[in-house]
Structure formats: structure tokens, C-alpha cells
């Protein structure tokens, strides 16, 4: 483990150059990876799944965050609960499948059995002095933001999550996420540090050159540009887009659909950004013809042109809510050089594949985009290992939000390790 009193980590944190990518060890060092888990993933609210991952009582989902095995279950009262996936007898992992359905939670080792509330309800041969009440599963903080499941491993989770909930619930609610089902889920193991995955997600500087599918529904100029570099035609296009954003926002907000940008990426622990943006072409969805992929709308929308609601959270998620489907993404760090990106496509729960939606059409844009992003992240991971690598400058026009991600990260790390040092 890193020596925290005279550490290279502290020095690296102190000398981070604003407006530039991070120094190589932040992407490559196993010690800094362990520090990231401790200071970020064991402290902040982490997005792990959606309520439709566990639609019925007894449905369970497991996720590992660093050395922590977490279990998310739907209990008999339909509440979503989270526990450490660790038996209170001798610590065996309790649930082994990533997804399963259980009546009770039975440990394979000596058959200790817990109900869905985490109470130990059966343990043989433990004698009269044994108190099962003291051996329930250890709970993990869990919150569902309109169906998006976040967990926090800290004893005292950041309280500002409530502010994000208050701000975001009205944006997400119209999409009725709890009335959706998973049409498709994909796991991609990206060959890159989790921060490279997140940095890549926080800009579209790379979109024009790399995402031919994504740039069909998304506007090329929607994610920033240097005004002085635009020619006349490009400027006219940018102006047209800005006017469309203004008129779409006015129209949606008047219809009770919150749409305006809100951004707290680096001034809160539970940092986030949102904005509902109009789509190009016919503007209905993230598809190759920009038309809705699913015939059943998610809510009682007056138009199919609901744009795309972006919702990004620190440290590890991004989401797109359209009128007809939702796509959510979670980045789970596996090691310094590997990250699991889980993508989940959700449609109305009554939608029938092949009748109301064509699966290939539904997932085409983001399947292609994810593969392209995974490759780009891999390029950067390789680059960070080279002796030629040095932090490079972010574009002030298109990479401001990458900078905000890095600033948020450096703040969290500095706070955590300074506090730990002061307390020592
Ligand atoms: O998914 C996102 O929200 C960002 C913006 C577009 C590209 N990128 C993947
Ligand atoms: Fe679970 Fe023994 S470790 S029952
Ligand atoms: Fe991308």
C-alpha cells in the first residue's frame, strides 16, 4: 500500500496541472488504483444498476467494487435493499451469480440462511447462547433515483446526494423508468483505467472522427467548438442548433418536461450534469434513422420528439433518456488498466421484441459507439505506459467537462488523504 505520509500520491495530487490530463501513474499504478477505490468508490455514491435489473421480489444483482462484494435484492415489500455479499458465519461469498432469483439467501458453506431483509433466520448447531439477531447481513446504503440504483459504501454517505435527487427526479420521472424492462444489457471490459473511460465520456471532441453512428442522431456542434475556427456555413449551423435548443427547451418546459442544463460536476461530492438536447434529423431517438426504436412511448408525451436527456454522475455513470427508450452506462473499475462498462437498454415493460421494437435497431448506435470508445480508451492506456507520455492540454472549448471530472477527482483524493493524514 502507498505510504501516505511522504507519498508520491500526495506529490502528484499537489502538482496536478489544471487544464491537462493526469500524470501517468494515475492511470497505471496499482497503488493509486487502490487509493481510488478507497477515496472514491468506497466514499461516494456509485451507480450500479436499474430497478428493472431486479423487477420481482427475490431478484438479486451482485456487483464487486474493489474488494467489496455487494448484493442488491428486491424484498417481499418491493423495496430495493443492498447488503455486503458476505456471510456472517465465516465470511464466505453468499451469492455467486451476477443475477439470480432467490427465496431466501442460503450460504453454500454451512447453510446459514438469511431472509430478503438480511435477517439470519437459520443457522444449525450454533448452541443456545448464539444470537442470530447479531448476525444479520451488513447493510449497504442504497438509493433509487427514479429507478436508477446508487449504493454508497461509506459509513456516512455524502449528504448532497439528496440535492441531486431533488434536482434530477423531475427530469427523469417523465420517462417512467420503473415501468420499463431491460431489452438488452452488454458488458464491455475496456483495457483502460476507469478515469480514462470517464474522461472519454465527458467530451465529444472525438465524436466527429470516431462515431459515425452516434453523430447521426447527435448534432456535431452540440458539444462545443471554438467560434473563431468556424467558417460561415458552420457558424450558421451552430446558430441554427443554438436556436433549436432554446425553442425546444421552451416548448418542453412549458409542457412540464424539465430540460434546462444543470451542472454541478465539480462543486459537489455527488456531482452531476443534465440537459435535454434536441436530436438531429427527425429527432426522436438514438437510432440510425433517428426515429423511435420502440413503438410504445415511455410516458404520455405529446410528441415523439423528446430529444435526449443526458444525465452524468461522478464518479461512474452516464445515461440517455429518450421518448421511447433509455440507455444507462456504469463504469466499474476492475484494476488500474481495466474497467467494466455495462450498458443497459430499457423499453416500456409491455413492449414485445419483434413486434414493438427491433432489437438490432434499438442497440445499433450505442453498440457501435461503445466499441469505438473502448478502442480509444485502450489507445490512451497504452500511451500512458510509454515514457513519452506527459499530460497534454484539454481544449477550453470542448473538454471543459473532462477538466471538471479531473478537478472533482483530485479534490476528492486530496481531501480524503489529507484528512487521513491529519487524523493519524
Ligand atoms: O454519452 C455521452 O453523454 C457523451 C456525449 C456524447 C459522447 N459521449 C459518449
Ligand atoms: Fe456461510 Fe459458514 S461461511 S454458512
Ligand atoms: Fe465516444
From TrEMBL:
Output the CDD domains linked to this UniProt entry.
Answer: RHO_alpha_C_GbcA-like (cd08884), Rieske_RO_Alpha_N (cd03469)
Q: Which GO terms describe its molecular function?
A: 2 iron, 2 sulfur cluster binding; iron ion binding; oxidoreductase activity
**Is the keyword Secreted assigned to this protein?**
no
Record carries keyword Transport: no
Among PANTHER family, the record links this protein to:
CHOLINE MONOOXYGENASE, CHLOROPLASTIC (PTHR43756:SF5)
Task: Identify the residues that the record assigns to the Rieske domain, covering every copy.
Answer: 45-151
| Necessary cofactors | Fe cation
Q: Which InterPro entries match?
A: Rieske_2Fe-2S, Rieske_2Fe-2S_sf, Ring_hydroxy_dOase_asu_C_dom, Rng_hydr_dOase-A
Q: What is this protein called?
A: Rieske 2Fe-2S family protein
Question: What Pfam families does the database record attribute to this sequence?
Answer: Rieske (PF00355), Ring_hydroxyl_A (PF00848)
Q: What are the protein's UniProt keywords?
A: 2Fe-2S, Iron, Iron-sulfur, Metal-binding, Oxidoreductase
Amino acid at each position: 500500500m502507498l505510504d501516505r505520509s511522504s507519498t508520491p500520491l500526495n506529490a502528484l495530487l499537489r502538482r496536478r496541472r489544471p487544464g491537462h490530463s493526469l500524470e501517468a501513474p494515475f492511470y497505471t499504478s496499482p497503488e493509486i488504483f487502490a487509493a481510488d477505490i478507497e477515496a472514491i468508490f468506497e466514499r461516494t455514491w456509485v451507480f450500479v444498476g436499474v430497478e428493472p435489473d431486479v423487477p420481482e421480489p427475490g431478484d438479486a444483482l451482485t456487483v464487486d467494487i474493489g474488494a467489496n462484494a455487494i448484493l442488491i435484492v428486491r424484498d417481499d415489500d418491493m423495496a430495493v435493499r443492498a447488503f455486503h455479499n458476505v456471510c456472517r458465519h465465516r465470511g464466505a461469498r453468499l451469492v455467486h451469480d451476477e443475477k439470480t432469483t432467490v427465496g431466501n439467501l442460503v450460504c453454500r458453506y454451512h447453510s446459514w440462511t438469511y431472509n430478503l431483509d438480511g435477517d439470519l433466520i437459520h443457522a444449525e448447531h450454533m448452541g443456545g447462547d448464539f444470537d442470530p439477531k447479531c448476525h444479520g447481513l451488513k447493510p449497504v446504503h442504497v438509493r433509487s433515483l427514479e429507478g436508477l440504483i446508487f449504493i454508497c459504501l461509506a459509513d456516512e454517505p455524502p449528504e448532497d446526494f439528496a440535492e441531486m435527487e431533488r434536482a434530477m427526479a423531475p427530469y427523469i420521472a417523465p420517462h417512467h423508468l420503473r415501468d420499463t424492462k431491460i431489452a438488452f444489457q452488454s458488458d464491455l471490459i475496456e483495457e483502460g483505467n476507469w478515469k480514462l473511460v470517464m474522461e472519454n465520456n465527458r467530451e465529444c471532441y472525438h465524436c466527429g472522427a470516431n462515431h459515425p453512428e452516434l453523430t447521426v442522431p447527435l448534432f456535431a456542434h452540440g458539444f462545443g467548438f471554438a467560434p473563431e475556427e468556424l467558417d460561415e456555413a458552420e457558424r450558421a449551423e451552430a446558430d441554427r442548433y443554438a436556436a433549436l435548443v432554446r425553442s425546444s427547451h421552451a416548448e418542453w418546459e412549458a409542457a412540464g418536461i424539465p430540460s434546462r442544463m444543470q451542472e454541478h460536476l465539480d462543486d459537489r461530492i455527488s456531482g452531476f450534469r443534465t440537459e435535454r438536447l434536441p436530436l438531429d434529423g427527425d429527432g426522436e431517438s438514438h437510432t440510425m434513422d433517428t426515429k423511435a426504436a420502440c413503438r410504445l412511448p415511455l410516458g404520455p408525451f405529446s410528441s415523439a420528439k423528446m430529444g435526449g436527456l443526458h444525465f452524468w454522475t461522478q464518479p461512474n455513470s452516464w445515461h440517455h433518456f429518450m421518448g421511447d427508450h433509455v440507455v444507462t452506462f456504469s463504469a466499474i473499475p476492475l484494476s488500474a488498466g481495466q474497467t467494466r462498462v455495462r450498458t443497459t437498454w430499457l423499453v416500456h415493460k409491455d413492449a414485445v421484441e419483434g413486434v414493438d421494437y427491433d432489437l438490432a435497431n434499438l442497440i445499433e448506435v450505442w453498440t457501435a459507439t461503445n466499441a469505438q470508445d473502448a478502442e480509444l480508451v485502450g489507445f490512451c492506456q497504452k500511451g500512458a505506459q510509454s515514457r513519452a507520455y506527459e499530460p497534454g492540454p484539454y481544449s477550453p472549448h470542448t473538454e471543459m467537462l473532462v477538466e471538471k471530472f479531473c478537478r472533482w477527482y483530485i479534490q476528492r483524493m486530496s481531501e480524503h488523504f489529507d484528512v487521513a493524514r491529519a487524523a493519524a
